[in-house]
Write a structure and sequence with these properties.
The protein has 344 residues and is mostly helical. Helix content is 52%, strand content 6%. The protein has a three-stranded antiparallel beta sheet. A two-stranded antiparallel sheet has the order 1-2. The radius of gyration is 19 Å and the shape is globular.
Length: 344
């Protein structure tokens, strides 16, 4: 039996594509992995709207466009080069047009517009360094500068962010939206866009206040409680790493918590957000490198590859195919090293 196509006959859970069978228990060969990635990227590209956007069953176009765009960037394409250059350019055009006078990238009528703002801004920050057109570069600088200012204005008194701005949401905040903003802000800072230091410091303080220090805790839903949440905890570590806080005193305990709750890839101990949790935990493990990364990667990739659909997308989760497909493709392509925000 060929090494590149080996499988275990006793496994009943398998995926068939292009005459290749990949069982959950089999090793994922490089050729199989590349084939799954290629099919997924092609699915994303073919499901982009004429406006340059993606959405989640008609909702959240800014967030889905940012996330899908990041997955295409991870392949190595840019706005000027590569197989998906035109898709990336169209996505950039869409998000620039979605930029409001107050800096919001999105629609204020969206009940989760902070996510769209964060993921849209993160995507724009990642393409900026490869943009060669001077007029477009200045346009991006203007959009990102205003977007950073909006982040500062939308931040709550406690230092976090909610689903909408502090003003629109009566100062409500929670962990996942906070992390989305911090990662976007870090991407902007890396791109040379001024980001006030106090915004990041307040956000890190918020994450600290949400961290449960007794035993092997985790990061709770928000500063008012909610118990330890594996997805938010993984995202918090990634956020701290993005901010350069590798030696943060909260990191060791958070790592233990995530290893305990997310280390078993077959488990769904994640409050229903398996793909979101491993989107961030994979970033953490990749930055750790070495055995921590390779052992985790091998297990994770087996499950993700096995769950790919015959059309190239992933349908798991309740947000929609674009969301899950973009997340999985970003994780599967971390080792490409194409995105500055995820680099070690």
């Amino acid at each position: 039996m060929m090494m590149m196509k080996k499988f275990i006959l006793t496994s009943f859970y398998f995926l068939v594509f292009s005459s290749v069978v990949v069982s959950v228990d089999a090793e994922v060969s490089e050729s199989d992995l590349n084939r799954v990635i290629s099919r997924g990227l092609n699915w994303l590209a073919s499901n982009q709207s004429r406006r340059g956007s993606w959405d989640a069953n008609g909702a959240y176009p800014s967030a889905m466009t940012g996330m899908a765009g990041i997955a295409l960037l991870a392949e190595g394409s840019t706005t000027t080069q590569g197989k998906y250059a035109s898709n990336i350019r169209d996505a950039v055009d869409f998000l620039i047009k979605r930029s409001r006078q107050n800096g919001l990238i999105g629609d204020s009528n969206d009940d989760r517009y902070t996510y769209g703002h964060g993921f849209g801004l993160l995507f724009l920050s990642q393409i900026f360094g490869e943009e060669e057109d001077e007029t477009r570069r200045q346009e991006l600088i203007d959009v990102m500068t205003k977007a950073v200012q909006f982040c500062g204005q939308a931040q709550t008194k406690a230092g976090g962010w909610g689903y909408v701005s502090a003003k629109d949401g009566n100062d409500f905040d929670e962990g996942s939206t906070t992390i989305t903003q911090v990662q976007a802000l870090r991407g902007c800072r890396n791109a040379g866009i001024p980001v006030p230091k106090e915004i990041i410091e307040k956000a890190i303080g918020y994450i600290h206040r949400c961290s449960i220090q007794q035993g092997v805790g985790g990061v709770q839903y928000n500063i008012h409680g909610g118990g330890g949440r594996p997805p938010i905890s993984a995202a918090a570590i990634a956020c701290l790493f993005n901010a350069g806080e590798y030696d943060d005193k909260f990191v060791p305990n958070l790592l233990k918590y995530c290893d305990k709750t997310l280390g078993n890839i077959a488990s769904n101990n994640d409050y229903g957000h398996w793909h979101y949790a491993h989107y961030y935990f994979a970033q953490v493990k990749y930055r750790q490198g070495g055995k921590d990364w390779t052992e985790y990667r091998d297990k994770l990739f087996k499950r993700v590859v096995a769950e790919a659909g015959s059309d190239g997308s992933w349908a798991q989760g309740y947000i929609g195919k674009v969301y899950t497909t973009a997340i999985n493709l970003t994780v599967l392509q971390l080792e490409n090293g194409s995105l500055p925000i995820y680099m070690k």
